[in-house]
């Protein structure tokens, strides 16, 4: 197992910088794993599952920080967010188990196609998410939220990158929240998915705890700054960052697929 004493200082610095940037991006619109995972995979001797597990540990600190910041400043409705978070935690735990068995290459093509659809859909509807216009009420609203939480929670446990992004666009497009409210609720759910994955990865020994703590501290700083900026700038700013993050996710995952298929 790789320990901190085995990791070069330059690599640790890169992990810290990636954690800061990922915390900021995650707090605004999700997708911070896009920055963290590639850097973690550069750590000598680390396995893909260890990188995924350690990424979860680092992310949970930043997500918790941005969740608290959003809650204090936006006040999201917990009647939807908490049940959604509970089923997402269960889905993420199940996904983490599958992650140790299923090659990521099986899932990546589907995710790239989904992201392309999300980008086109969002870009073609400039008013989407600028103002709240809830599509359902009562039980139908809750059941839709629970389905979103379970499916995306499972994905977060299996693979991870883009989880917050998928949560935000699902809450905007399927339930009718504005981008700010969607981001606030997504943080609560994403915190639960991270905890669900950690509940499996930590006892099974896949997490590099020392590196995860370093990543977590830098993630906290980025998460706090990102959440404050998102609240201050509002839904329009979040929409722009959202489209940028989705575009980068498509490019990154698409390039990974190209490399794998041409190797």
TrEMBL record:
Keyword Transport set for record: yes
Record's subcellular location: Cell membrane
Entry keyword annotation includes Nucleotidyltransferase: no
InterPro entries the record matches: TM_pro_TauE-like, TSUP
Lineage start: Bacteria, Bacillati, Actinomycetota, Actinomycetes, Micrococcales
Keywords noted in UniProt: Cell membrane, Membrane, Transmembrane, Transmembrane helix, Transport
Alphabetized PANTHER family for the sequence: MEMBRANE TRANSPORTER PROTEIN YFCA-RELATED, TRANSMEMBRANE PROTEIN YFCA
Main location: membrane
Membrane topology: Multi-pass membrane protein
Similarity-based family: Belongs to the 4-toluene sulfonate uptake permease (TSUP) (TC 2.A.102) family.
A Gene Ontology cellular-component term: plasma membrane
Name of protein: Probable membrane transporter protein
Pfam families linked to this entry: TauE (PF01925)
Source organism: Micrococcus terreus
Taxonomic superkingdom: Bacteria
Segments crossing the lipid bilayer: 7-27, 81-99, 105-124, 145-175, 195-217, 237-255
